[in-house]
Structure formats: structure tokens, C-alpha cells
Design a protein that fits this description.
Length: 240
């Protein structure tokens, strides 16, 4: 009776595949892992930040449309706006108050309105830049991580085939560990990329919503302030 053939068993756990890989593969896996961790940190920070912005924006809109004077609301906010809409409001009110200090004869509704719109647009751009901070990293991880994982897989398979050629063995037990280690980098790349892509799409939609909300508010505020400037400019004429 022939002696039983001893089968070498390899552990295909993630830790063992990482430990059995070469130095280049380890560096690639560590880089992908760190990118994934940083992506999740950005995702949670953005979700929490956007939630606070929604709450503070809703509170500001309630105060703004409550019928209270814009001057009293400006005094309440001061130089510490807590959300994008209050930042736009503060910037516009500063420019509006500067315009009121000009002589009545020099008031030009069209030029003042242009300055108000420009000031508010600059503020919107700044707020959008703040909202988009670190979004580029998520986009980069979503697009580059799968390619790095695939590159690691190609590298690992090439190394496995080279080892097979040197050992001159085509036994599946000799081929499987190397191929599994090679495919492991693709899995790590996808693990890093998929959440980053999903989060980027979701957060980009939120940012677009905030941007549209800011633009609509800026248009409404510009109309209100322009109307008050027109009234201020016409008051001396009526009195005369």
C-alpha cells in the first residue's frame, strides 16, 4: 500500500498573506491601508461637519425670516458667523453699511448692487472651498487605489510565475499561495476605493445642495438690500 502523500496546508488569512508577501507588496498594502484609514477619518469628519452646518443654517434661516430687523441680526451674529448663510449675510451687511455712510447724492443703486453681489460671490467661493477641503483625497483614493491594487496583483503573479519556473513545479499547492497573495492587494485596493467613491459621490451631492442654497439666499438678500438702498436714496429727494 503506497504511503499517503503529505499535503502542505497554507493559511490564507489576511495577516498570513501579508506576512508571507515580499517587501514591495507589504509597502503597497500598508499604503493602501493607511489611505483607507485616512479616507474613513475624512468621511466621518465631513458627515459630522455637514450635519452641524445644516442645523446652524436652519437656525439662521428661522431668525432671518422671523421678521426681525437685519441690523439687529447682524449685531447678534457679529464677526462670528457659524454657517455659510450667516457668513454671506455678514459680508453683505458690512458692504451695505459702508454704502450707507456715503453721501446720498453719490449713491448709485446699480454699482452698489454689483458690489454686494461680488462680495457675496466671493464669500460663497470661500465657503465652497472650505466645504470641499480634502475631497480631492477621497477622489484620488477612489480612482488610484484599485489601480495600485491591480499593480500589486500583476507584480505578485509575475513573482509567482518566476518562482514556479525556478522550482520547475506545477503543483497547485505550490502555485496557489503566491496567486492568493497577489490577489490580496486587489482586494485591499477595492476595500480602500469603494467607500471613498461612495462617500465622495454623497458628499459632492451635499456640497452642491449647500452651494445652491447659498446662491439662492445671496439672490434674495441682494434684492432686499438693494430695495432698502433705493429707499434710502429716494428719501432725501422726497423730503426736498
Amino acid at each position: 500500500m503506497p504511503a499517503p502523500v503529505e499535503i502542505t496546508r497554507h493559511s490564507f488569512s489576511m495577516l498570513n498573506m501579508f506576512l508571507q508577501s515580499d517587501l514591495f507588496m507589504k509597502a503597497l498594502i500598508i499604503a493602501l491601508f493607511l489611505a483607507s484609514v485616512w479616507s474613513w477619518a475624512i468621511i466621518f469628519e465631513k458627515l459630522i461637519s455637514f450635519k452641524k452646518i445644516r442645523e446652524k443654517t436652519k437656525l439662521f434661516e428661522t431668525k432671518f425670516w422671523s421678521g426681525a430687523s437685519m441690523e439687529s441680526l447682524y449685531q447678534e451674529i457679529g464677526n462670528r458667523p457659524q454657517d455659510p448663510l450667516s457668513a454671506i449675510f455678514t459680508a453683505a451687511m458690512k458692504e451695505w453699511r459702508r454704502s450707507l455712510k456715503q453721501p446720498a447724492a453719490s449713491l448709485n443703486g446699480a454699482s452698489i448692487k454689483e458690489r454686494l453681489e461680488k462680495v457675496m460671490q466671493i464669500t460663497i467661493d470661500k465657503e465652497v472651498d472650505q466645504l470641499e477641503r480634502r475631497m480631492t483625497f477621497l477622489a484620488s483614493v477612489g480612482s488610484v487605489a484599485p489601480l495600485l491594487g491591480l499593480f500589486g496583483t500583476v507584480w505578485g503573479i509575475m513573482d509567482s510565475f518566476n518562482s514556479i519556473g525556478l522550482s520547475q513545479s506545477t503543483n497547485i499547492s505550490a502555485v496557489a499561495p503566491g496567486v492568493a497573495e497577489a490577489l490580496f492587494t486587489t482586494a485591499v485596493g477595492l476595500i480602500a476605493a469603494i467607500p471613498a467613491v461612495l462617500a465622495y459621490n454623497k458628499l459632492s451631492t451635499d456640497i452642491d445642495g449647500f452651494t445652491k442654497q447659498m446662491e439662492n439666499f445671496a439672490s434674495e438678500l441682494s434684492t432686499l438690500l438693494s430695495r432698502q438702498l433705493d429707499q434710502s436714496a429716494s428719501s432725501p429727494k422726497e423730503q426736498a
